Amino acid sequence: MKYFGTDGFRGEANVTLNATHAYKIGRYLGSCFGGGKERRTKIVIGKDTRCSGDMFEHALAAGLASSGADAYLLDVVPTPCVSYIVRNGGFDCGIMISASHNPYTDNGIKIIDCNGHKISAEVEAEIEKYIDGEEDAIPLAIGDGIGKIKDYAEGKSGYVQYLTSLAKSRFSNYKVALDCSNGSASAVAKGVFETLGAVTSVIHAEPNGVNINNNCGSTHIEVLQRHVKSCGADVGFAFDGDADRCIAVDNNGNVVDGDSILYLCGCQMDSCGELDRSTVVTTVMSNIGLYKAFDAKGIKYEKTDVGDKYVYENMIDNGYSLGGEQSGHIIFGRHATTGDGILTAIKVMEVIVGQKTELSKLLEDLKIYPQKLVNVRVKDKQAALDDKDVISVSRQIEEELGGDGRLLLRKSGTEPLIRVMAEAETIEQCEKYTDMVVGILKKKGHAL
Q1: Which positions are annotated as active-site residues?
Q2: Are 284 and 410 spatial neighbours (Cβ–Cβ below 8 Å)?
């Protein structure tokens, strides 16, 4: 793919992704995605808090209207809100404008089909053809055929009501710290938890267009760790820019990542008969410690490529109800079709309230092995992975680790990076092995 990666069309605003791209995406979707002669196409648009979001929102809406579709604007919402609204509001598809955990200078366009799923690679390929086409074969709507652009604030309210309806318990007497990353969660998270009775302590919920993910949120969890300890919270939750992922912090200030959340919720769901086929879907980045803990509990697991779209595809294909990533994308298949950070936080709270104990104690049986992840910016991702010397060093490391660790090299789906991850019994081993791989990448001239 030229433009679309594992999570939509993402790039630096007005450099690799510009308003013309957005307009053409709107043109294509407005003409070719649903509707037909019987009725006008309806497409809903959400965005996070980046300063470029307004530009892309207006360009997309103009493209949709010029093709005869109606655009419904949700304003600032989490990505899972768009997915929920599409599934339940009779829309032909949805668009989320976000670059997730990336810095504010980046942005992205995620397209969600009428079932709340990310669109297929085949549709993305057709959009790319249209973007690069020399002639515009899509007719412009005229007269009363021109689409309308409508405010759709009630959509956000419906999503919030849905989230609160899913909670099985009240969170009264619990102090919950929330790091909203100056992103989409700023518009939703505090209200949800206060409605459920929690006493909230909120940080990074004052977006100004350029502070999204800036030393805050799930990618800078150390900030929430300090806050939880300083304010005496029972638990903390940090979200990313578009609030589709969540990382927790326990009552002692320790990080509870996606693997730990999968363990916590997987065990709870299995004991209640809600873990379909007693299986949790993970990715290749999940920790060996998680698998050993699942083995001890008799819980099965699957492994997919990195990306919540691959996790969800496996869940759908095999009838599983829980899956996710170490990074905090957790999918509760009975309630959502994508990762939802706020829903994840609710589910973690349910376990804490139901077990009537501290989060730190609930994870005592889970031993997480040290991991070291190094991102190496490279000239050509595939050439780096195919290099014979890189392959040779990788095999040597895997033989040394045996069954007590592993090495993983993978391409980033959105950036020119090779991700080098080592997992072993000590952090010193992890650092040794990642240094070996990074060294050979530099020596062979692949690293920038």
Answers
A1: 100
A2: yes
